[in-house]
Design brief:
rod-shaped, 3 domains, Multidrug-efflux Transporter Regulator, Chain: A, Domain 2, two-stranded antiparallel ribbon
Length: about 300
């Protein structure tokens, strides 16, 4: 057959592998128009119809709609333009699928109620600007009025989640869980108390000293004792308690007395909120940071040791 040969719909179906019904559908919509008609009124197509049908099938497999396909085959818009636009649309679809997967995975793992699932779905769909506002509002609640101090600027920055443009599924799931956690009023109040205690700690004593916070002191001293299996209520724990309270007293410029030990106990109990540790774990996942060491075991050990040495 040469370039002047005309084909019936059946001929096109046999040569392209498409059904007669599909070819008639494309023809009715002007995407593959007939070149002529037979004396009996049957449609006849030129050789260019084969090329059009091959292109149509490829574009349909890629998910393009018929209106766009018609513009491409009629050269009203270029194929590269369509490819770029479609690639962007697919990127949006992929992102939404990741969000849906994250919500469903979280619901399955946590046994969430329909109300919790609805909230998670809404959090997952937030735009970048909406996510930023949600995080800023949470951090304002925690650090508002305190972050004028240079150290609080760094702390606030270190607690800011930055979901990447193309997040992995576990990052999306972590973001949804962190966003939900940040809306918990009780958690916000706990984090605010912790920030205020930290500010008060920094305001006490010699401001020229470079000091670690109480939790860091406990980690360094109680960690080895915990690893060694020392009972926190035993006499063997006494030197460790004394070492921590002495360093803390020096840092805040106060005597190492009963009042200081009660103050330290209060601050450590506030710091030992499991939700705080969860927030930091989720933050590491979202930001792609290495998982931090858990302070909970050392804090649990030292809080028990300190309580045993405070009367009443």
């Amino acid at each position: 057959m040469d370039g002047d040969t005309l084909y019936s719909i059946g001929d096109l179906a046999r040569r392209t592998g498409l059904t007669v019904k599909a070819i008639r559908f494309y023809s009715d919509r002007g995407i593959v128009p007939p070149t002529d008609r037979s004396p009996a009124g049957y449609r006849r197509y030129g050789i260019e119809a084969l090329a059009r049908l091959d292109l149509v099938r490829t574009l349909r497999d890629l998910g393009l709609d018929l209106s766009t396909i018609r513009k491409v085959v009629d050269r009203e818009i270029s194929l590269p333009e369509v490819a770029a636009a479609h690639a962007e649309a697919l990127a949006v679809q992929i992102r939404m699928l990741r969000l849906r997967r994250a919500v469903l995975a979280a619901v399955a793992r946590r046994g969430s109620t329909p109300e919790e699932m609805d909230l998670m779905h809404k959090l997952a769909k937030l735009s970048e600007d909406e996510r930023r506002r949600l995080v800023d509002e949470f951090l304002d609640t925690v650090f508002g009025g305190l972050d004028v101090r240079p150290e609080f600027v760094g702390i606030r920055r270190s607690m800011t989640p930055e979901l990447p443009d193309n997040p992995e599924a576990e990052q999306v799931e972590a973001w949804v869980e962190l966003a939900e956690l940040s809306q918990d009023p009780d958690f916000r109040a706990s984090m605010r108390r912790m920030a205020q205690q930290h500010a008060a700690e920094r305001a006490e004593g010699d401001s020229t000293l470079v000091r670690r916070d109480a939790a860091a002191l406990v980690r360094d001293q109680a960690g080895p004792a915990l690893a060694a299996g020392i009972d926190p209520t035993s006499p063997d724990a006494e030197p460790i308690v004394t070492a921590v309270t002495a360093q803390y007293a020096y840092a805040v410029g106060r005597p190492d007395d009963l009042d200081l030990r009660r103050l330290l106990l209060t601050r450590l109990e506030t710091a030992n909120d499991s939700r705080r540790e969860l927030y930091l774990q989720l933050l590491s996942v979202i930001n792609g940071w290495p998982a931090g060491e858990s302070l909970a075991p050392a804090l649990d050990w030292f809080i028990q040791a300190l309580r045993a040495r405070i009367p009443g």
